[in-house]
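Supplementary Methods. Inverse-folding protocol.

Structures were first reduced to a discrete structure-token string of length 186. This string, shown here, constituted the complete conditioning input.
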């Protein structure tokens, strides 16, 4: 004799709905993956809406500063190779293998980013959306003197980018494909 299935508990109902939402979100991410330019344009528009909100309401500067620091951190991870040549050079001096070729006769090794482009875009978009969401709550509107934050952020940006560019020059890697030789198939 067939008995009816036991009623679903509240926790399992929430879990099943959460899983359904996660699958739907992952489906959306899978669909937008090939559209790099459009994804970044959407993130740029979202960032402009966020900055417009900050300027219009004249507040939430600490949220904007935190977002700027987080985006700078993501950008640096995007520019940095997955395998740090400075650490690998130390290994080579100790007798271990090297990640990037140092001589012309060594094997070519491609530039692999520490933070891939898609994860960079996804994290940046999520951060901007969370920052925009935070601007609707008074608890995040901490009074600060915003010009100091702007100057400090620009100073931090200049110093970290200078260090990153010096690292790129010292270990001869270019994280972008612009200006690199392209070989076409015959």
């Amino acid at each position: 004799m067939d008995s009816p299935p036991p009623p679903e508990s509240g926790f399992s109902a929430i879990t099943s709905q959460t899983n359904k939402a996660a699958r739907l979100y992952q489906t959306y991410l899978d669909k937008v993956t090939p559209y790099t330019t459009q994804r970044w344009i959407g993130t740029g528009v979202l960032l402009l809406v966020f900055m417009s909100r900050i300027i219009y309401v004249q507040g939430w500067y600490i949220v904007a500063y935190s977002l700027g620091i987080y985006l700078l951190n993501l950008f640096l991870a995007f520019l940095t190779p997955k395998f740090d040549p400075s650490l690998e050079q130390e290994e080579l001096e100790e007798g271990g293998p090297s990640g990037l070729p140092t001589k012309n006769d060594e094997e070519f090794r491609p530039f692999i980013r520490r933070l891939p482009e898609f994860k960079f875009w996804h994290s940046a978009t999520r951060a901007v959306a969370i920052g925009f969401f935070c601007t609707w709550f008074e608890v995040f509107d901490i009074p600060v003197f915003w010009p100091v934050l702007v100057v400090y952020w620009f100073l931090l940006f200049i110093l970290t980018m200078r260090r990153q560019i010096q690292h790129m020059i010292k270990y001869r890697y270019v994280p972008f494909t612009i200006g690199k030789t392209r070989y076409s198939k015959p």
